[in-house]
Amino acid sequence: MTIVVTGATGQFGRLAVEALLRRGADPQDVLATGRDDAKLASIAELGVRTAVADYDDPASLRAVVEGADKVLLVSGSEVGRRVAQHGNVIQAAQDAAVSLVAYTSIPKAQTNTMVLAGEHRATEELIAASGIPFTFLRNSWYLENYLPQVPTYLEHGVVGAAGDGRISGATRADLADAAAAALLADDSAGRVFELGGESFSLADLADAVAKASGRDVAHTEVSGEQLTEILVGAGLPRGYAEVLADADAGIARGELEVTTGDLERLIGRRPTTYREAVADAVRALAPSAS
Ligand SMILES: NC(=O)c1ccc[n+]([C@@H]2O[C@H](COP(=O)([O-])OP(=O)(O)OC[C@H]3O[C@@H](n4cnc5c(N)ncnc54)[C@H](OP(=O)(O)O)[C@@H]3O)[C@@H](O)[C@H]2O)c1
Questions:
Q1: Of 20, 161, 274, 277, which alpha carbon lies 20 to 30 A from 94's?
Q2: Separation of 93 CA from ligand 1 center, angstroms?
Q3: Is residue 274 very low, low, confident or very high in pLDDT (cuts 50, 70, 90)?
């Protein structure tokens, strides 16, 4: 059985490969793919097979998917180009008559109105229309979206435009483990998993940083426009800042809150919580900062 993992050179993809191996997959059954030869060399050290495949190069995709049983399609990182890119992977998977495509999507993809959800919705629709048996792994936010900002939170507090909205954040590692579990299970076809950990608001996040550090950490609510300007002032490109502000608006509408319990069921253990991840991030800082 060959399981192709796309985007294996990225953070999630590599963790998914590692989780497949931990869950007992034969390394020779795992074909880790990406567009960068040098990055693939580091994954080859895990003992898995590797091959170059670029979402923009249908021939490269056909070559890696041919003869495969299952494909983990890790959503690409080039926002705005992803539907066509994912479409190339889906076409290759359809031509190869694979038995399963698992796709990393976003919670409530069919109704989620966040800007970022559009490409996920369109990809899910392409997969469904292809007739390939599929599993949708609708991942809520990575906790790692927040953890690198812990030093900023300690200095300026948590600033956001998400209101009381709750984020069912989970570590990349837990979400990647869920992907591996779904790929290795026999009953994943046709299933849609809404995946997230214990939910928190931005006020809860500030509280977690405060408790872990013993310092005062405020939560400040701003408008979406204000958040955009703050992020631009911090050096982010305007387009990206607008996408992040739009994501906060989606959080305020509850679009990243997941209450299914699918993550815990899939991985068979309690996922890491935001408080645990924040405490680890605070501990990892220089002693003077915590
Ligand atoms: N749930 C969340 O909070 C969240 C947050 C951010 C992103 N995401 C989504 O989840 C995906 C995985 O997350 P991540 O943290 O692993 O992101 P990442 O580290 O940026 O990895 C993205 C992967 O996609 C690959 N890729 C991009 N364009 C490609 C192309 N044209 N052909 C082949 N491969 C291509 C990248 O290859 P290279 O190594 O060559 O760049 C990399 O392997 C992201 O791409 C994004 O769609 C989710």
A1: 20
A2: 19
A3: very high
| Residues within 6 Å of ligand 1 by CB | 7, 9-13, 34-36, 39, 54-56, 74-78, 85, 104, 139, 141-142, 145
Residue 32 Cα to ligand 1 midpoint, Å, equals 14
Name the token pair of 43: 């994954």
| Shortest-distance atom of ligand 1 to CA 56 | 31
Mean residue pLDDT across the chain: 97
Is domain 140-171+196-258+269-290 classified as CATH 3.40.190.10? no
pLDDT at 282: 97
User: For 252, which DSSP code?
Assistant: H
- For residues 102 and 120, what is the distance between their CA atoms, to the nearest angstrom? 13
Assess if CATH 3.30.160.70 describes domain 3-139. no
DSSP-derived letter for residue 286 is -
Query: What single string gives the DSSP state of each residue in 150-170?
Result: HHHHHHH-EEES-TT--B--B
Rounded-to-integer distance, Cα 67 and Cα 63, Å: 9
User: Comparing 34-38, 146-150, 275-279, 282-286, which segment has the lowest mean pLDDT?
Assistant: 282-286
Fold agreement between 3-139 and 140-171+196-258+269-290? no
Ligand 1 pocket test: pick from 15, 37, 77, 142 the residue with the most ligand atoms within 8 Å of its Cβ.
77
Question: In angstroms, what is the span from residue 77 Cα to ligand 1's centroid?
Answer: 4
Please state the domain extents for the chain.
3-139, 140-171+196-258+269-290
**Going by CA atoms, what residue is nearest to atom 7 of ligand 1?**
77
> What pLDDT sits at residue 249?
98
> Is 0.85 surpassed by the pTM of this model?
yes
Q: How far apart are CA 155 and CA 135, in angstroms?
A: 42
